[in-house]
Design goal:
17 helices, Serine Threonine Protein Phosphatase 5, Tetratricopeptide repeat, 348 residues, repeat, binds zinc ion, TPR_rpt, mainly alpha, TPR repeat
Length: 348
């Protein structure tokens, strides 16, 4: 690499990482050195051969000290809002079945509680005002970063072929399990050539597999803006909500897929998983059965159906499920121990 000073006919030797450096350029050659550039902060001159290490170091630091904190913050906010919605629902929504089981005192209490809805809705308006402050601050930060974004990215002659190269690089990294680096490759690809649905979905998967479920969820929602009936993004949203333990919300998204394709086996299984988590074993089995109609040899679907039957104390049926699963994977320890538990229960 040539020294950027045109009259210096030499190769770059060092780069400067000093915080307060006011030299024109951070790259320097031996002649720069002789002319005493960066003289006040020699210790911050790094050999150019260390550049890629430095880039990696910054990338890791960014992930650990910034992105992770933001992820935790957004998880906390989402979790709190989720709990708040749950509490409000449980106070103001009551099923017609449960209503029939209440006695006069309970109905009286219920009515007293219902009167409170106006207060709650007033509190939510106040909450929106507080939230607006945070939203405005975030918006300012984004705009700041936008205006600071260096033009080095736009200056090079990037094109669609280059975007594709980053995409392929991302796929390779993803397959090797390096999700954070894959994410950055997909990001670069999308920066050069935005709104590529395939790349956006892989970006969502990278976030998902790095356990950033909230970010993955937002990414899948971005895809939905471009293609409202994209099954992969609908599934991704549902799956993230499942990971975030928001089972009934997840089911709403899986149902949107099932409207488009009622035989989507993967979705039927995942919907079953949500129902199982909500202790609704009967309906879970119904979903697993439908999934198994489409794809009879899915090990985990069979195993999950067995677990539900076991919960319902239908041990004989559970055992026959586990036997089917063991035909697909005869050494699976989880299924083996589930089966022997059922056998013990039958002997009692
Ligand atoms: Zn120079
Ligand atoms: Zn300097």
């Amino acid at each position: 690499m040539q020294c950027p000073f045109l009259d210096h006919n030499q190769q770059v030797e060092r780069f400067c990482i000093n915080l307060n450096c006011c030299e024109k350029l951070r790259l320097s050659c031996n002649q720069c050195h002789e002319e005493s550039f960066h003289i006040g902060h020699q210790k911050d001159q790094k050999l150019i051969s260390n550049l890629s290490n430095f880039v990696e170091e910054i990338s890791n630091k960014c992930e650990k000290e910034v992105i992770q904190i933001l992820t935790e913050l957004s998880d906390q906010i989402n979790q709190m809002i989720f709990l708040l919605k749950d509490k409000i629902r449980s106070q103001f929504q009551i099923s017609s079945y449960r209503l029939k089981t209440l006695n006069n005192i309970q109905i009286n209490q219920m009515l007293c509680q219902f009167i409170n809805l106006n207060n709650v809705s007033q509190e939510i308006i106040e909450l929106k005002v507080v939230a607006q402050i945070l939203l405005t601050t975030l918006d300012e930060r984004i705009k700041n970063l936008d205006s600071n974004q260096l033009s080095y990215k736009q200056q090079s002659s990037w094109d669609i072929a280059e975007a594709r190269q980053y995409y392929i690089e991302g796929l390779t990294l993803f397959k090797n399990g390096d999700y954070v680096k894959a994410l950055s490759a997909f990001d670069t690809s999308l920066m050069i050539h935005p709104n590529q649905i395939d790349v956006m979905l892989w970006k969502g998967d990278s976030l998902y597999y790095s356990n950033s479920y909230q970010d993955a969820l937002m990414q899948f929602k971005q895809v939905l803006k471009l293609d409202q009936s994209n099954i992969n993004s609908l599934y991704g949203i549902g799956d993230c909500l499942y990971r975030l333990n928001q089972y009934s919300e997840a089911i709403c998204w899986f149902d949107r897929i099932l409207v488009l394709n009622s035989k989507h086996a993967k979705t039927l299984t995942k919907k079953g998983d949500c129902l199982q988590k909500m202790n609704n074993y009967q309906e879970a089995i119904f979903c697993y059965d439908k999934a198994l109609c489409e794809d009879p040899s899915k090990f985990w679907t069979i195993q999950s159906k067995g677990s539900c039957l076991q919960e319902l104390k239908k041990y004989q049926e559970a055992i026959s499920c586990y036997d089917k699963a063991l035909m697909l994977d005869q050494n699976n320890q989880i299924v083996k121990s589930q089966k022997s538990y059922c056998e013990q229960m039958l002997q009692k």
